[in-house]
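Figure 3 (text version): structure tokens given as input.
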């Protein structure tokens, strides 16, 4: 047994409090936890699964609600705001409080929410949830504070907008319908007050019953028995007639004082058949009737109503102007539409000027004042999902000349015609006062093989340039079961910002494109590559950290081929016609407009009759003139100058004799399906996708394969004994291995174009737990080492077509001299110049000191989940490691010490929508991108891109960047009625709603609805925005709270005094009991 002495204890205490000696290479880190904060900034794209739309006619802003509870509010270009409801709810209806800076949303859980728009981030200030009845339709008259609510039971309730308290005034369905009616009229589908008499409320029931209710006398003045089920109604501005739309595609016009039968019945799109009867038509879901001051007849606008025959299946909006009928065909189903008018007053000539049509996948605004009804050009990018987004790249703080270059070539090809020449009518709001000082670019890859380049520097996304890569390939023939629905879909994008070279990967092909401002005719070369991986049934599962194998140097192979004893058959075929591939490049010259031109295409070939594995990683280095890509089977390295394959190996062959796994080579064609699952597999909590730690993300089922997950070109140390850095390629695999490949480049100039690049594994292997996701390098001072790249230089069209080998050699020599000097084995780098290699896997991160290859720092990022995206980024003139975990968390670690700086949950607000859209967490993980300066983005839905920031500095300045939704302005005056119109046509009715619906009406039924108070009613909001009145309101509220607290304090003091008196009496009784007793009597 160990003996503890006083001297030993003191020595241990001294050693515990003494500070460790500082290393001379210790780096002072400047990033702290307070520098990080997660915040959503801007959302781009079209709202996913829209359900409702509304427009404020005075503020000129538009609101769109969605099935997931999202609320998108847009104004002029640059004014865009997004907010979301709590819980799993859909927005069924939106009602603006016109020119009040507020709106009401009606949700699918029978709740009403009042939103305050007088702040840059709208918030809910009141909520009211109905508990006994389902809400079906709501109506809010202009400049009224009383909201009419129709329910599924056929009743109509009223709510005060300022206090969100139910009124005692109720219109019961059994009092509204005729006494002779024996059936229930159905839910309320429409509510509206008479434009000239607000005391008359028109109530429409689903069965077709329509009632004109007198609010003062509380009786039904007229009942209109419509023949078909009712969908909607619309008033004429004079208040004498209204129009109904029905489920059989008919429109009926009624006179208010003639309830017996409609004055007009028409089937706008009904065709008379051979039997003399009209063909059946689709329901007219909504109709609107707008008057024109200078026209004899108004405009009748409706959606639906087309015949059921084949020609009438296209969704459409119909505009009827007198005897003229115009059908506007839409590309998607119509969700709802709103007619924009010059005046908000319903009893005036509306003079409509536009129709906002909300489609299932688009937003269309039609110009009603121009012949032919053209559409307005939408300044917002609502077509991100024109073809489904399959890949995304984000570059913040990119070179300033990049956006003008993309815009210049994009403007030549984007010829837009047929749009209205008038300005965008949704013009409300005001821009923010500040913007980011650096350019930002987003590149989206799509299922049809196209790429779109976007300017994301401001609140509004602007398309710069579009590239269609499908033009490079022949149309695939549908043969067998291996045919892919989207064979040209973009899977990965890699852009070199300095040289403007871009490589793009599909499932089994890689394209290298170069930027050119001139047109040219190109015959695209094709390089066919075959990569073979020997599958093994009994592969060891790396559940624990393997001891690193011996780092003895493998004999450098001077040619492409297998290394070691593994029998991996690899081949490089160029221009061979007998190789089977999933895509084929078009032969012959083809004209390409200014922009990105294809340089060559690499295509993976079938192996033993089986299709090749999907490409999982991609990298490019314009300074080395090399490109590399990996798939589920192995790796290929391509010389982009000589257009040749330098190396194509199966992953086991990269290890050579140091393979940590026991592999038994077997032919994949004779192999039974693999059913072995690693014991380290797990399912992530809170996400809808599971993944094996040792599998690639693109092929979850092949758990026994070792895919190439990460590729990084760098000038670094390849072995422990190296005194100098040299060009190399770091290869990360799905089983946690990092293998270093040495690149021996010929001297620049003629020799680089004629002599081969020598590629050989170095023998250096690092091992981590989980698939490798990111690798980067820091110098000895902790500064990020950027990858080497050439500067882009424009070439004329003639040079691009007719450069000879000598001219290309001269050009390459000039570029090499002008570019930044690369650290090579022949340079005079001293031994004191060290590097840190940052390696991040799905589970952990390590910082390796090079060339000693010792682990300087390490950390476990997650235990129960796995990292899906990781990146070393620049923030506040320093660097850190950012990672996004599958459970929705974002983490930041300092470099090189890997101290935790941030650990927050990003997708907590997505938990409520996973029940109806299970692909959201996977979609976020698939498209998440970290970039520099504190920016990141991801696809939050198939149609929307969400930008976020992890910088506290940007979060603090976000309000200045966002636009204002509400601008104080005067409400248009009410129309003045002429003397003769008032004399012969009746005066405009007046209604004291406060007297009718206020406290005098009594209290609402208990338990009908639950009021959830917010920060105050509309009166409180107005008081806040009106200077002294707002101060007085706040002071009055504070005094009331202070009085309540003082009253509570008095009660507590009295209670404490009573308790003290009771305690004193009890103590006195105890004292008297034991007063005369001796000590031995106790």
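Below: residues designed for each position.
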């Amino acid at each position: 047994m160990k003996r503890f002495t006083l001297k030993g204890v003191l020595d241990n205490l001294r050693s515990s409090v003494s500070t460790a000696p500082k290393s001379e290479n210790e780096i002072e880190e400047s990033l702290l936890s307070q520098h990080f904060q997660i915040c959503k900034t801007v959302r781009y794209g079209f709202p996913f699964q829209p359900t409702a739309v509304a427009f404020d006619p005075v503020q000129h802003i538009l609101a769109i609600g969605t099935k997931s509870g999202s609320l998108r509010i847009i104004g002029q270009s640059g004014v865009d705001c997004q907010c979301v409801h709590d819980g799993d709810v859909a927005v069924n209806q939106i009602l603006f409080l016109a020119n009040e800076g507020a709106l009401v949303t009606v949700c699918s859980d029978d709740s009403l929410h009042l939103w305050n728009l007088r702040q840059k981030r709208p918030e809910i200030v009141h909520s009211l949830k109905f508990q006994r009845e389902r809400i079906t339709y709501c109506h809010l008259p202009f400049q009224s504070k009383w909201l009419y609510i129709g329910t599924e039971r056929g009743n109509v309730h009223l709510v005060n907008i300022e206090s969100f308290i139910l009124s005692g005034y109720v219109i019961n369905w059994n009092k509204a319908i005729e006494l002779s009616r024996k059936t229930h009229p159905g839910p309320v589908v429409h509510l509206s007050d008479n434009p000239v008499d607000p005391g008359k409320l028109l109530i429409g029931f689903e069965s077709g019953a329509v009632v004109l209710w007198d609010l003062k006398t509380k009786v039904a003045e007229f009942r209109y028995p419509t023949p078909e089920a009712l969908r909607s109604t619309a008033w004429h501005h004079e208040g004498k007639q209204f129009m109904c739309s029905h489920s059989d595609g008919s429109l009926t016009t009624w006179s208010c004082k003639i309830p017996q039968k409609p004055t007009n019945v028409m089937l706008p799109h009904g065709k008379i058949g051979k039997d003399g009867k009209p063909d059946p038509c689709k329901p007219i879901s909504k109709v609107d009737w707008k008057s024109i001051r200078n026209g004899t007849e108004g405009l009748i606008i409706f959606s639906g109503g087309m015949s059921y025959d084949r020609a009438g299946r296209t969704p459409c909006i119909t505009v009827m102007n007198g005897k003229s009928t115009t059908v506007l065909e839409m590309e998607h189903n119509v969700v709802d539409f709103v007619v924009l008018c010059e005046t908000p007053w319903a009893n005036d000539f509306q003079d409509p000027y536009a129709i906002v049509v909300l489609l299932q996948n688009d937003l269309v605004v039609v110009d009603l004042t121009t012949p032919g009804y053209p559409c307005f050009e939408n300044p917002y990018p609502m077509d991100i999902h024109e073809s489904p987004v399959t890949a995304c790249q984000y570059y913040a703080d990119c070179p300033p000349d990049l956006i003008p270059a993309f815009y210049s070539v994009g403007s030549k090809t984007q010829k837009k015609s047929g749009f209205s020449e008038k300005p965008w009518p949704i013009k409300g709001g005001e821009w923010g006062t500040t913007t980011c000082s650096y350019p930002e670019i987003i590149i989206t890859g799509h299922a049809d093989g196209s790429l779109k380049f976007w300017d994301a520097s401001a609140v509004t996304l602007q398309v710069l340039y579009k590239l269609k890569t499908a033009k490079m390939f022949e149309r695939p023939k549908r043969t067998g079961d291996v045919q892919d629905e989207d064979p040209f879909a973009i899977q990965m994008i890699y852009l070199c910002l300095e040289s403007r070279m871009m490589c793009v990967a599909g499932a089994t092909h890689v394209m290298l494109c170069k930027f050119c401002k001139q047109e040219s005719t190109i015959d695209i070369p094709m390089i066919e590559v075959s990569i073979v991986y020997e599958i093994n049934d009994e592969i060891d599962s790396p559940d624990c950290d393997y001891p690193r194998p011996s780092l003895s140097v493998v004999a450098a192979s001077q040619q492409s081929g297998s290394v070691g004893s593994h029998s991996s058959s690899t081949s490089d075929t160029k221009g061979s016609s007998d190789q089977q591939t999933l895509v084929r490049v078009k032969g012959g010259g083809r004209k390409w407009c200014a922009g990105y031109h294809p340089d060559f295409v690499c295509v993976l070939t079938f192996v033993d009759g089986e299709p090749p594995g999907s490409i999982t990683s991609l990298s490019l280095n314009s300074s080395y003139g090399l490109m590399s890509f990996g798939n589920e089977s192995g790796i290929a390295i391509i010389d982009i100058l000589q257009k040749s394959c330098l190396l194509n190996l199966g992953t086991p062959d990269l290890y050579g004799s140091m393979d940590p796994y026991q592999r038994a080579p077997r032919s994949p064609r004779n192999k039974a399906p693999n059913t072995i699952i690693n014991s380290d597999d797990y399912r992530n909590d809170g996400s809808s996708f599971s993944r094996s730690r040792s599998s690639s993300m693109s092929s979850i089922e092949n758990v026994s394969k070792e895919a190439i997950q990460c590729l990084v070109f760098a000038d670094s140390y390849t072995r422990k004994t190296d005194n100098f850095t040299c060009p190399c390629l770091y290869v990360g695999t799905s089983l946690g291995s990092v293998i270093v490949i040495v690149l021996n480049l010929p001297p620049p100039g003629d020799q680089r174009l004629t002599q081969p690049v020598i590629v050989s594994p170095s023998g250096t292997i690092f091992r981590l737990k989980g698939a490798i996701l990111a690798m980067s390098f820091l110098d000895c001072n902790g500064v990020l080492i950027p990858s080497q790249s050439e500067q882009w230089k424009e070439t004329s069209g003639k040079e691009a077509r007719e450069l000879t080998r000598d001219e290309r050699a001269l050009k390459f020599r000039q570029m090499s001299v002008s570019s930044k000097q690369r650290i090579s084995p022949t340079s005079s780098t001293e031994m004191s110049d060290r590097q840190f290699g940052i390696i991040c896997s799905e589970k952990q991160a390590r910082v390796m000191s090079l060339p000693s290859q010792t682990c300087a720092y390490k950390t476990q990022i997650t235990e129960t989940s796995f990292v899906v995206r990781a990146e070393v980024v620049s923030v506040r003139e320093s660097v850190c490691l950012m990672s996004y975990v599958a459970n929705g968390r974002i983490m930041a670690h300092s470099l090189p010490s890997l101290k935790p700086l941030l650990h927050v949950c990003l997708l907590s607000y997505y938990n409520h929508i996973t029940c109806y859209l299970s692909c959201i967490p996977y979609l976020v993980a698939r498209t998440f991108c970290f970039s520099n300066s504190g920016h990141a983005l991801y696809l939050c839905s198939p149609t929307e891109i969400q930008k976020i920031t992890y910088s506290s500095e940007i979060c603090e300045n976000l309000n200045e960047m966002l636009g204002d939704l509400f601008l104080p302005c005067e409400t248009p005056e009410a129309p003045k009625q002429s003397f003769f119109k008032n004399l012969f046509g009746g005066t405009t009715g007046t209604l004291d709603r406060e007297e009718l619906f206020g406290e005098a009406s009594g209290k609402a039924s208990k338990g009908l609805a639950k009021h959830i108070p917010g920060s105050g009613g509309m009166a409180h909001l107005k008081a806040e925005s009106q200077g002294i009145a707002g101060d007085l309101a706040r002071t009055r509220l504070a005094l009331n709270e202070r009085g309540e607290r003082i009253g509570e304090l008095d009660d507590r003091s009295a209670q404490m005094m009573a308790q003290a008196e009771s305690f004193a009496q009890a103590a006195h009784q105890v004292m008297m009991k034991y007063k005369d007793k001796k000590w031995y009597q106790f």
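The chain has a mean pLDDT of 81.
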